[in-house]
Amino acid sequence: MLTESTVESMFREIVSAPNPTEETFDRAEDLLETELRDESPLRHRLTVELDELRSLATK
């Protein structure tokens, strides 16, 4: 299991890619699901952020 700091850095790197696709968002989601516990506040915060990014990308 990675540290929360490492997971957040990896998440930021994934979602900062220019012109993110659904595959990009799926990779970020997989990272959160595999590396952070369900009850993690960081997982909750990044999941909300990911949902917002997905919403913006579809507009």
Question: Care to describe what's here?
Answer:
The protein has helices spanning 4-15, 22-35, 41-58. It is mainly alpha-helical and 59 residues long. It has one domain (4-58). Helix 2 runs antiparallel to helix 3 (41-58). The radius of gyration is 11 Å and the shape is globular.
Structure in a nutshell:
With 59 residues, this protein is mainly alpha-helical. It is built from three helices and no strands.
What is the number of helical segments per DSSP (H or I, 4+ residues)?
Answer: 3
Q: How many DSSP-defined strands?
A: 0
User: Which stretches of 5+ consecutive residues score pLDDT under 50?
Assistant: none
Oligomer: single chain
Write down the overall mean pLDDT. Answer: 93
Overall helicity? over 70%
> Describe the biggest sheet?
none
Give the overall shape, derived from the CA principal axes.
Answer: globular
**What's the order of the H and E elements?**
HHH
Strand content: under 5%
**Number of domains as seen in the coordinates:** 1
Structural class: mainly alpha
Compute the CA-based radius of gyration. Answer: 11 Å
Task: Determine the N-to-C terminus distance.
Answer: 35 Å
